Amino acid sequence: MEESRQLIMLPGPTNVPPKVMRAMIKPMINHRGPEFRELYEGILGNAKYVFQTKGDVVVLTSSGTGGVECAVTNVIQGARKIIVPVGGIFGQRLRETIAVMGGEPIEIPVDWKRAVTMDMIENVIKKEKDAKAVAVIYNETSTGSTIKCMREIGEFCNEHDLLFIVDAISILGGDSLPVDDWHVDICIAGSQKCLMSPPGLAILSISDKAWSTIEKAENIFYFNLKSYRKYKEEGQTPFTPAIPLYYALDEALKMIREEGLENVFFRHKVCAKAFYRAVEEMELVPFTEEEFRSNTVIAINNPPKVSDVSLREILRRKYKVVIAGGQGKLKGSIFRIGTMGKISRAEVMQTIGALNMTFRDLGYESKFDGSISAAKEVFEKETI
Amino acid sequence: MEESRQLIMLPGPTNVPPKVMRAMIKPMINHRGPEFRELYEGILGNAKYVFQTKGDVVVLTSSGTGGVECAVTNVIQGARKIIVPVGGIFGQRLRETIAVMGGEPIEIPVDWKRAVTMDMIENVIKKEKDAKAVAVIYNETSTGSTIKCMREIGEFCNEHDLLFIVDAISILGGDSLPVDDWHVDICIAGSQKCLMSPPGLAILSISDKAWSTIEKAENIFYFNLKSYRKYKEEGQTPFTPAIPLYYALDEALKMIREEGLENVFFRHKVCAKAFYRAVEEMELVPFTEEEFRSNTVIAINNPPKVSDVSLREILRRKYKVVIAGGQGKLKGSIFRIGTMGKISRAEVMQTIGALNMTFRDLGYESKFDGSISAAKEVFEKETI
């Protein structure tokens, strides 16, 4: 297949900045030597800035899902019963992980067009007095919905001595998540989403409260957090790390720190807003109810008579823009766009343009001018 | 720390060829799209050539140790009792993995200077009639020893309906291992050893016989081989793969195929032979007994009065050659050199030179001329 530069508008992996890509080809080093120590310590320092935590951070060589398995398997022996809202594929996966790892997931079913609310959580906790943790998908990648009561959940967990575990894979670095302020005990991020690095690393923050539960964990090998903590003292990981991906993450975190977290969040917010406005003008309907809409994943209902597969195929082949389809029960009925990482006006406007052209190719008369103007207006007003 | 090109003579990671490094910076792609499918299918085809198998191959985003955990956890429910020779750190780790994952490891203690022999295995199997598998470290990275009766173990396992599980992380692609011929049911390799790629991927071959045991496996998530098999049909992995590392592995496997497996093995053998000859002339003593010496990891006793730490420190700082020390109970008493991947006369001769110079810096009178001549002679005789 011919190599070609595409605009990657997936909800991960995202467009990786050239500087981050180039960081991968730095000369190979010893993962038990001083160069790796300096690299790893630099990453951890900047990751703490992005997580807004004074707690521990570790980096695993695995996908984000591996990071979630790591979090669950390390707490499950001390916190067997875990409350988990399920409103999409990743909520389902989290529930399944808890069950598979020997825990007891208490599911809160959530409308896939919405996200869990505080009253739903409180209602369940009243009945499940021996629950030890609440685990949530902060941003449900499969539906484009974001939990809006994170601070409240964190405060509640803090007051009731529950662990607060947050899968923030598709949102950390793209929207507000002050881990310490919000009393998040374990937060899981992935390298290939808002952290604009290639896929292959999971990054976890761990609070002191979480550590006291993790102490009880036994019979874990590759995902053993106690090993990661022990080796971290020497600036190492227990098993051979994916060195080039660590170099890339290091560079990306430096770029985020340089831009400033608040600026980064604002940029994501404006890009998402431009998309939602354009979509509205195109007479398309976002899948997610307005109050829960994500700033990092935009999910949109397919217009009637437009084939999901053709839409993505034409976008990719003819206009070199890559977006995602629906997953699970949403397969064929929605499409999803990632607004993550080094996202800016250029990528948003190109995608809106290509979407309009593709719809026309497919015989759906979308309002090209109106959508472009609406998005443009957002960028001009917000001046990013 | 200043970036500097070092000669990486570790038993992994190794010197990655520039072409393989550059493959990592190919434009980002969708891991659920046609480009990844083509990439993954190409990798699997060439990996089958290197494993010499017609069976299945899968690639995981994890270190080699993750690959071993994957193999063990997928068979342990159908094959609880596993015979495992232990003659070094990685044998210990394999035994521990089996125990941690709920299996019953039957240890065959092996002298760390040697490797297991066929009679040792037969003796144990006579007593352990309900054992379901034999799991071995083909090449013990911590001691530089290689099992020399692999074919016999494989035939024995085949005749007695035992699974034969082989950790070949530090040897696959560097020495003979015809997976199908030797009746290996699961073979685990790592990207960063003889496969001369960056670290971060584990590659597993799986026989039909292994699959029938794996069918019984439940409650596995990240390392669930049945998921990997299912997604492989679509040219995908169940969780987001470390795309740049897949590109690198793809390039490295193509290079191996182009050179030809027998040529690659011969090159490793000659490089190792040159090292062993030079070491002898330097009046140093290899840690491993002659008949078990590895062609990919050279372990050498530290000469008396030479500090292990100073040796590696001077080598690295002054001569930019990176080698490894001893692990576990061998810490401080041996040093280890990897002869893996794109190893050739140049790297071997540079390392022998730098070793001699370092020994002199440390006041140990090594026989420079003799060792250089001895190594040179090996290369001239063997004409590689």
Low-pLDDT stretches of chain A are none
Estimate what percentage of residues of chain A fall within beta strands.
15-25%
The end-to-end distance of chain A, rounded to whole angstroms, is 37 Å
Count of discrete alpha- or pi-helical segments spanning 4 or more residues of chain A:
13
Biggest interface goes to: A-B, 61 and 61 residues
Q: What does this 3D model show about the protein?
A:
The structure is a homodimer of 384-residue chains. In chain A, strands 2-10-9-8-5-3-4 form a seven-stranded mixed beta sheet, with helices on both faces. Chain A has helices spanning 18-23, 34-51, 64-75, 89-100, 118-127, 150-159, 208-214, 225-232, 243-259, 261-281, 308-319, 345-361, 368-382, and strands at 7-8, 56-61, 81-86, 104-109, 133-137, 139-140, 145-146, 163-167, 186-190, 201-206, 297-301, 321-322, 324-325, 334-338. Chain A contains 13 helices and 14 strands. Chain A folds into two domains: 7-11 and 260-382, Aspartate Aminotransferase, domain 1, CATH 3.90.1150; 18-259, Type I PLP-dependent aspartate aminotransferase-like (Major domain) (Aspartate Aminotransferase, domain 2, 3-Layer(aba) Sandwich). In chain A, helix 10 (261-281) packs antiparallel against helix 13 (368-382) and helix 12 (345-361) packs antiparallel against helix 13. With 384 residues, chain A is α/β, with parallel strands linked by helices. Chain A is 43% helix and 15% strand. The interface between A and B is large, with 61 and 61 residues.
